[in-house]
Specification:
Strand order of the largest sheet: 3-2-1-4-5-7-6
CATH class: Alpha Beta
CATH topology: Rossmann fold
Largest sheet: 7 strands, mixed
Shape: globular
Order of helices and strands: HHEHEHEHEHEHEE
Bound molecules: S-adenosylmethionine
CATH architecture: 3-Layer(aba) Sandwich
Helix content: 40-55%
CATH superfamily: Vaccinia Virus protein VP39
Number of helices: 7
Length: 193
């Protein structure tokens, strides 16, 4: 087992033991395929937790040989733990890990963003989308997690992307202790319509 794989396994185990939210391997493998297909230059993630999804996404970036991740977490303790996990997994050079409210941090990003993962509190999905929208590239991939269990809390976001863009809901059976079935929304953002 590589150092990276050992850190990923430890992060998975710690999330399960401490009930720290994470994607789980079923959604993470799907997300990894999306990243490898999109070959993004810059991924922005809202909701780092302790870095499980971030580790999967940078592994996908390494597989395609380009790109970096900017990830935002509002909980200082979780963000610092994620930073330590990224360092131990030898991928910290690919990751800009920021501590703060994603709705504010995203407004300060000036680079083009071609992949966005929304995985923070549901009511902030639409504010985060709006905060980064002017930097999203045409045909950027926008992924929202928990659209099965959290649909009511993010109705404004889902109504917007489903009525304006090519957008599909993907359902997963998961083996997470806290949820057994959930979905992700994958939207192809169009700048010019
Ligand atoms: C579902 S977890 C993220 C899981 C992570 N993406 C993974 O799969 O490993 C959601 C995280 O979003 C964080 N969060 C909540 N509101 C936020 C905000 N406004 N800005 C940034 N992070 C936020 C929470 O503290 C929590 O750690």
């Amino acid at each position: 087992m590589t150092v990276f794989d050992r850190v990923l396994q430890e992060v998975d185990e710690r999330c399960r033991e401490q009930h720290i939210p994470m994607l789980g391997s079923e959604k993470a493998e799907f997300l990894s395929d999306l990243v490898q297909n999109a070959q993004p230059t810059l991924i922005v993630e809202c909701g780092t937790a302790i870095g499980y999804s971030g580790l999967w996404m940078v592994a996908a970036l390494r597989a395609v040989g380009e790109g970096s991740l900017l990830t935002v977490e509002i909980d200082t303790g979780r963000a610092q733990e994620a930073q330590e996990n990224f360092r131990r997994a030898n991928v910290a050079d690919l990751i800009d890990s920021r501590i703060g409210d994603a709705t504010e941090v995203l407004k300060a990003i000036t680079e083009p963003v071609d992949f966005l993962l929304l995985d923070n509190n549901y009511s902030n999905y639409f504010p985060c989308f709006r905060a980064i929208e002017s930097r999203l590239t045409d045909r950027a991939t926008v992924v929202a997690d928990n659209v099965g269990i959290g649909a009511a809390g993010m109705a404004d976001y889902l109504n917007h992307v489903r009525s304006h863009y090519e957008s599909r809901t993907h359902w997963f059976e998961t083996d997470l202790p806290w949820v057994k079935r959930d979905a992700m929304e994958v939207t192809i953002y169009r700048k010019y319509r």
